[in-house]
Design goal:
126 residues; alpha/beta; Immunoglobulin-like; four-stranded mixed sheet; 8 strands; elongated
Length: 126
């Protein structure tokens, strides 16, 4: 096989391998003992303990400042999936109708659990 043709085959094979890895969505493996992603869930309750349905829960990435939101279910539950293990997140809730809000809680990057539970309690607007 001529040198030029061999080189084309090698380049084509290399391109195919790179494209194949990108197409399958392969990502770097997490460090030993570290989850690729993590999840957080919890329940939002009203002052007094009843579940708070239809309340907006905010999740703020403290690195990128991106905010995600979730409207609680009838039982007050919320969840966020596929969170980076290397980032701190701020969680808070607010009832858009009454103005009641929770204090802010932190999901720390030092928390190595794959599934965390953080419950939030609404307090009346002052």
């Amino acid at each position: 096989m001529p040198h030029g043709m061999r080189r084309r085959w090698v380049l084509a094979l290399a391109a195919l391998l790179v494209c194949g890895a990108a197409a399958t969505g392969q990502q770097p493996k997490p460090k030993k003992g570290q989850a690729a992603t993590r999840n957080v869930k919890g329940v939002v309750s009203k002052d007094g303990g009843a579940p708070a349905a239809g309340v907006v829960v905010y999740l703020k990435n403290t690195k990128s400042l991106q905010i995600r939101s979730f409207i609680t279910k009838d039982d007050g539950e919320y969840f966020f999936n596929e969170l980076s293990p290397d980032v701190d997140y701020e969680l808070s809730a607010k009832d858009q109708n009454t103005g009641a809000a929770s204090s802010t809680k932190i999901l720390s990057s030092f928390d190595s659990r794959t599934n965390s539970i953080i419950n939030l309690e609404l307090h009346p607007k002052k």
